[in-house]
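call fold(seq) -> tokens
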Amino acid sequence: MKVKLEHIIEGMEMQSDENRSYLNLDTGELVYVSQDALLIAEDGEDYEHLSEWQRDEVKIALDIVDNFGKYAAFPSQYDINEYDMMESFCYGLTDSNMQTALLKSIRGKGAFRRFKDTVDRLGITEKWYDYRDMKYKEIAVEFCESNGIDYIK
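ret:
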């Protein structure tokens, strides 16, 4: 079985504080579960009182907990660290004025919004997204190789 890198990237992008993404190594299926469902599964709590969709999610979480070797957890948003991507993008620019403006934009609270606004203002939005996509692809390849997953580019 081979998994498309774009599906791996999709799983990585779905990570958040509230939700986790996994790749089922047997089927190649991406699964998403909330942290709440994982806690219920780990604690062995009764979940019959939950709505049908929540019970279905807890069943997936139970499978993840009981058969963890069957799943590969995608890198978290903290492992990916988009702030580092933005900073390395800034340092990779050859135009010193653009570099200075972007480096200034990522300092302090609101860095992500200011960065996006500055990239738009400078007319290099496509260049940023190409760079970001390349970095995500590198992380996806590393994820696949470290988990013994065959992939298609």
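DSSP finds eight helices and five strands in the chain.
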